[in-house]
Amino acid sequence: YEGHNKDLSWISKIQVNHPAVLRRAEQIQARRPVKKEWQAAWLLKAVTFIDLTTLSGDDTSSNIQRLCYKAKYPIREDLLKALNMHDKGITTAAVCVYPARVCDAVKALKAVGCNIPVASVATGFPAGQTHLKTRLEEIRLAVEDGATEIDIVINRTLVLTGQWEALYGEIRQFRKACGEAHLKTILATGELGSLTNVYKASMIAMMAGSDFIKTSTGKETVNATFPVAIVMLRAIRDFFWKTGNKIGFKPAGGIRSAKDSLAWLSLVKEELGDEWLKPELFRIGASTLLSDIERQIYHHVTGRYAAYHDLPMS
After folding, report:
1. pLDDT band at residue 307, thresholds of 50, 70 and 90?
2. What is the pLDDT of residues 146-202, one digit of tens each?
3. Cα–chain-centroid distance for residue 128?
4. Of these residues, 214, 219, 246, 269, which one is catalytic?
5. What span, in angstroms and rounded, lies between the C-alpha atoms of 231 and 72?
6. Percent of the chain whose predicted confidence (pLDDT) is above 90
7. Which of 107, 250, 259, 269 is catalytic?
8. Is 273 exposed, middle or buried (CB count within 10 Å of its CB: 0-12, 13-18, 19+)?
9. Has residue 306 got a pLDDT over 90?
10. 107 in catalytic set
């Protein structure tokens, strides 16, 4: 898959069977949730896949500090003890912030003695509507500041106008600008117009060297949905069959409840198998999800639901 002027004409011939995808999505959503006694174990597993995220205009170094503390200590110590999981070193998979906050995050994680990665969004997040030159510079600066994962957004215009070679070329350049850092490519699926485009964009992103493909920025009106996920997961599977390379999957945006997180885990397990259920190949982008998981674990351990003050944000 190397080389710039490769022939991508086959991309335009792809068609996704929309009704079949919707049927599959309904089928999965109708499944029973995990059995009671296994639920706590699965919820703790879900914690280890979270990219704990804050992407707000009012982010300051102090709420980045709180975020990083929470990433290192996601679940209250006494709850972990009750489940005999207090010595397993459970943390979230990463923290995810804006480029200007990377330094704060690196510093805060160092202060709590936590070596999880700092992920930075880049390339004119969330719209991607800035000049290519500044989009590339943004990646380089974030990496310089210590980000080891970069969540880039693609230029949706190129998808909507069918400019697949140009899209491939841009992502190749993003890949190069990342250097050693992992590249997570946000497709912003809510803005791609069709499931066929979601499949095509997934393929191009993987061919161009992405380590992960990610559904959404969390800023679009439609974020991570099951139909879109199924198409992306099938693309990941096809790419694996063609190349032997395993590419990661990251749903993001609107994943707020513990129950949702379990549904995402079981979707990935069904479509790609257990080997994808590890932080190297699966992440969940979320900000409020963790507190709901903690609430559910509290309930599992104590038999009652936590009052708001029982489980502070950090």
Report:
1. confident
2. 999 999 999 999 999 999 999 999 999 999 999 999 999 999 999 999 999 999 999
3. 17
4. 214
5. 33
6. 90
7. 250
8. exposed
9. no
10. no
Residue 250 designated active-site:
yes
Tokens 């022939």 belong to which residue?
7
Which two structure tokens, joined as six digits, stand for 159? Answer: 């998808």
Omega before 99 within 30 of 0, i.e. cis: no
User: pTM of the entire structure?
Assistant: 0.96
Q: And the tokens for 238?
A: 């096809």
Q: Tokens at residue 6, please?
A: 């490769």
What's the confidence (pLDDT) of residue 3? 45
pLDDT confidence band for 314 (50 / 70 / 90): low
Q: Which two tokens stand for residue 121?
A: 């969004």
